[in-house]
Amino acid sequence: MIQKNLAISQNITKPLSAADALGCMLANFHATLSNIFIIGQKPMALIRQRKLTKQQIRRIDKQQLSNQDSIDDSLMDGVVMAHYGKQLEVQVTSLPAVIPEQPEIAPDDPEPFWQTLELNDIWRCHVRTNLPMLAAGDQVRWNADSNTGFGRIEAVKPRTSLVSRPDRYHKLKPVAANVDILAIVFAPLPAAAPTLIDRYLVVCHHAGVKPLLVLNKADLLAEENGVDTNELLAQYAALGYESVLTSVDCPENIAESDEQEGLDELKRYIDKKLVIFAGQSGVGKSSLINALLPDSGQSVNIISQNSKLGQHTTTTSRLLPFNPEDLTQGGIVDTPGIREYGIWHLTPDDIISGFVELAPLAGDCQFRDCRHTHNSKGCALWQAVADGEVLQRRVENLVTLREEADTKPY
């Protein structure tokens, strides 16, 4: 290339035709482009290869938030109280180091909008891009814009537990975070469904939440399915599950002390805890919440006289604190229709680990891929049923839940 350029320079005094001049220009232009791409090729290749992994992205985000937290005096602590589409309600649990002050305005100017910032206020907030989906109970770091009255969540603190369920699009959706207890509510009427109770026990085990069986409408034990319900309580007690008996049902007698049997014991169990009440419709979940939190204003549905079942009344997850001025005292996360608690996202090992008395036996089956159906050859679980060591219905419920998880809805 140098020799070619030298030859061109030596002949510069000679007249050039238009074609020769154009050829020289193209040759020099090509040489320049070649040098540019030869010099830049390696860095460009490196740029294309340096695609960050998810772990690197999380580490960078965490470092950026840490740096921002140390220099941004506007960040403060809060707890997510409810989720509304792309916005969340956040309660202020600490004020920022520097509280924004309303700017002065000229005497003749109209007073602009300004939202003051105070402890325990509840703000509607947007969420920073790339944060995980948040839920009631999440503890967050956020900042407030007093000019608009909206906040922005910048980070979420590590969770101690997370209860999730599939949404209408078959994607896993968090329902509540940092939950301590899942209170599984059932009643003599409508009759208790052991399969549903076992489903919730699996959810508790997978989410890292303590289960508590709450038998509501206990005053009906002598009238409706009393023998079966008492036997069910005894069976779960033998497995190590704790239970509480309450008698709260109709909205018109919630205020009557004699209709609130067992509430004091229930309050002792859930004191300073974040709790979810779950169970089939019509067992009195909303009535229980109203009895525990009279100011919560939960909608109480009327039992259908034909089906003896209830209609769903809760439409969105919301944290109802025991003490609105101190969220460390615990509260109740009221959740929408529990029928949607699918378990298709769980593995067979996840499901069987939720059956505390069956999980240790699974390794004794003749075949490692044993499905534990009634005709499974060499199944240690069914041998234990034959020996009277475990309940047949528990093995049957395990099989039912595993089959449901195997049948993906997508």
**Global Rg:** 32 Å
Broad shape: flat
Mean pLDDT: 79
**Total beta strands:** 13
Main structural class: alpha/beta
Unreliable sequence segments: 1-13, 33-49, 251-255, 299-314
Estimate percent helicity: 25-40%
What top-tier CATH class of the largest domain fits best? Alpha Beta
User: What is the CATH-assigned architecture of the largest domain?
Assistant: 3-Layer(aba) Sandwich
- The order of strands across the largest sheet is 10-9-8-11-13-12
CATH H-level name of the largest domain... which superfamily? P-loop containing nucleotide triphosphate hydrolases
- Summed up, the domain count is 3
In DSSP terms (H or I, runs of 4 or more residues), the helix count works out at 11
Sheet having the most strands: 6 strands, mixed
Termini separation comes to 62 Å
CATH topology annotation of the largest domain: Rossmann fold
String of helices and strands: HHHEEEEEEEEHEHEHEHEEHHHH
Report the portion of residues in β strands: 15-25%
